[in-house]
Amino acid sequence: MKYCSNCGTLVDIRIPEGDTLPRHVCPTCNRIHYHNPKMVVGCIPKWEDKVLLCRRAIKPRCGLWTLPAGFMENSETLEQAASRETMEEANARVKIGNLYTIYNLPAINQVYFLFLAELLDLNFQPGIESLEVKLFKEKEVPWDEIAFRVIGIPLKRYFKECHTGEPSFYIDTLDNIDR
Amino acid sequence: MKYCSNCGTLVDIRIPEGDTLPRHVCPTCNRIHYHNPKMVVGCIPKWEDKVLLCRRAIKPRCGLWTLPAGFMENSETLEQAASRETMEEANARVKIGNLYTIYNLPAINQVYFLFLAELLDLNFQPGIESLEVKLFKEKEVPWDEIAFRVIGIPLKRYFKECHTGEPSFYIDTLDNIDR
After folding, report:
1. pTM of the full predicted structure?
2. Domain residues of chain A, as ranges?
3. Is the ipTM beyond the 0.85 threshold?
4. Regarding the domain delimited by B1-35, which CATH topology (the fold level of the hierarchy) does it fall under?
5. CATH topology (fold) of A38-173
6. Residue of B nearest to A5 (CA)
7. Who contacts A58 (Cβ-Cβ below 8 Å, separation ≥6)?
8. Distance from CA of A140 to the nearest CA of B (A)
9. Phi/psi of residue A77, each to 5°?
10. How many alpha carbons fall within 13 Å on the CB side of residue A171?
């Protein structure tokens, strides 16, 4: 941020009175501009013993596989965000179930949420951000071609937990967000 | 948002190519400015059968009681945010436990997170945003003077669940955010 989004003046960076962190502050209209972490929300769309993955048509990690997920929008719930992203990226209809996992990604100011989900039919097809969408059994998943650790790690755990029952909620932190 | 925070030009509101929602778009530098929901994070600081509440010294709902909670900052985890807010508002040291509840508040573009927590000592005192901080047993809680429904509802449920065991995680939505 260089300019005040309220009045167009060049902003200062300083700690406002009563605050503890440096903020972008406008010297003209005195507006304080806060920057906060964003939520990325998706799901694990299940069909029998398979999971629906999307091959990315966009940067970063174009050509690699991921779960449907994306930035939560204003005016929606976490569950609605998960369902909408699944429709946008895979044209897939899902019933959103329990929250499965939360990952803190403090290095990139994001928090990731993945819900369990049931695919409602097999009429999925790639959305504009996907090259391909496909169902995979655990042994068929292209584990070396998963786009992000924050997807691969919970997906591996998901399949493991499915062997012994219903996957259950957990929360964790990834400090290193590289593949 | 009226001006582009990158170059200071007046922004347009339009749906960018390949997008589905209207965004603030700069006609000069083409920057798209996204606005996403914010996370509010806090905890339920427990000491024996009591919970630590803070009486608000700031608007909104100045003079009413709440749990320590506030906006998550960049570069921190949900757990760190809960702990930091408890220190800022009550100068209280806590051990953050399991995530207890998530509330979607789509009407105000927020998602609320409350963790279970153990107070580590009794050396708490009001922070700059609190008039008073105090431990309450369930029957002593000023239920009619709780600042927000998103605090009062889970707090009531928390005490109820404590009667029969460990409070367990749930996720819910409050469409109406009035008291």
Report:
1. 0.96
2. 1-35, 38-173
3. yes
4. Ubiquitin Ligase Nedd4; Chain: W; (2.20.70)
5. Nucleoside Triphosphate Pyrophosphohydrolase (3.90.79)
6. B3
7. A129
8. 32
9. -95, 165
10. 15
